[in-house]
Design brief:
319 residues; TIM Barrel; eight-stranded parallel beta barrel; binds NADP nicotinamide-adenine-dinucleotide phosphate
Amino acid sequence: MEKTSMHHRPLGGTGLFVTPLCVGAAPLGDMPETFLYGATEENALATLRAAFESPINFLDTAAAYGQGESERRIGKAIKEFGGLPAGYVLATKADRDFQTGDFSGEQIKRSIEGSLQRLGLDRLQYVYIHDPEHTTFENVMGPGGPLEVLRSFQAQGVIDHIGMSGGPIDMLIRYVETGAFSAVETHNRYTLLNRCADPLLDVASRMGVAVINAAPYGSGMLAKGPDAYSRYAYSDAPPVVVERARAIAQVCQDFHVPLAAAALQFSMRDPRITSTVVGMSKPDRVAQTLELASYPIPDELWAALAPIEYGMDDPEASK
Ligand SMILES: NC(=O)c1ccc[n+]([C@@H]2O[C@H](COP(=O)([O-])OP(=O)(O)OC[C@H]3O[C@@H](n4cnc5c(N)ncnc54)[C@H](OP(=O)(O)O)[C@@H]3O)[C@@H](O)[C@H]2O)c1
């Protein structure tokens, strides 16, 4: 596969260039409690090999995925390749302590040190602060807090760039408006089924902050189909969401377009989005995703989908 067949775009003002597709490594971390199925190390490594050899140059993980297992497996693949393939961009996330909820600067320091060790790297290209809905804005931005700690790693040359990744949209807008982050990652909130991230996309693109749109399949339903996998955003989907997904799937079928192609291209065709993060745990998914990304979709399909209502409420708000 040709490395250059996916057009690279600037990742905000970082000087990095990324493909419009990014491989999401949450399922690779073996997280049965989140996805209801696991991923063997063998499959994860084969998926990473396929990703490293593909035209995609962007990989997304987090310290917390599989309690470090996602990063550990990525570290093994990097070692096997003798380093991160040239031109590849690896983004990870600094996490709270999941046992205690500690989201202090000290914890973020430990998170970064753990990521460096598991990935076998001495430098991290891109680090997001992960899920700050579990702490306060004042803690993240205040003296000695997570942002300050990441900036001091940046000053030491350990981290190149800092972004923000999380759930609630109003919260993400508040962080984007500080101007402190070069990219913002949203998830499950800009899909065929839910568009509550729309105002974030406007604010971020106006400010030159890259939008990274994760979970275009709503964690799987829009790829596997609402009857095969009736979960949205890591929980059983409410009946109204399943019904809407069925209606969307029917329209796609009428146009002979795979549901997953429409779900993926819905995100990729939005000019405000720099890259779309697709989670996967099997090596064939890499080629499948590239095919879905270029599957021909007539404009009439988008017009036929338009009357189907979509959600604007936070899909995780009721948890
Ligand atoms: N707070 C945050 O920062 C945050 C939150 C959520 C997600 N993310 C990032 O975004 C990534 C994507 O989110 P996600 O993985 O939760 O959801 P997703 O991308 O919407 O969906 C992933 C699911 O879709 C399935 N899938 C992918 N391609 C498929 C295909 N061609 N055919 C059938 N099934 C397919 C995968 O199945 P298989 O496992 O069978 O391949 C996986 O179960 C994550 O991995 C993570 O890197 C970040």
